[in-house]
Amino acid sequence: MLMLQSILGSFALPTWLILIAYFAWFSLSAKDYASMTPRDAGTLWKIHKRSAECRSNRWHAIRRKENIVGFECECGYRHLEKRPITAKTPRSTRERCRELTGGFYHTY
Ligand SMILES: [Zn+2]
What we know:
Elements (H helix, E strand, L loop, with lengths): L1 H28 L8 H15 L6 E6 L2 E7 L4 E3 L10 H10 L8
Antiparallel strand pairs: 1-2, 2-3
């Protein structure tokens, strides 16, 4: 039992470090919506699975234009790397965004 706890403990720290690193990176580099690679989204999904004890096996990326800005888990959980919006976005882009995300999510 003690061994199990130490195994879990050794998982928890890198998970938090990854999370903190992501937040730091996004806040430094992103201006609007923070984009990520599919691999990043997959990593965040794994973090969600672990932290929420989610048993879903599937997720899909939430896209804005050509960028992945988050993911939606099969369980309904959504994660978005959202930045405060200051830029004006033309309406056509909004429509296109809704199209790309399949109606799951729209930005405004
Ligand atoms: Zn989930």
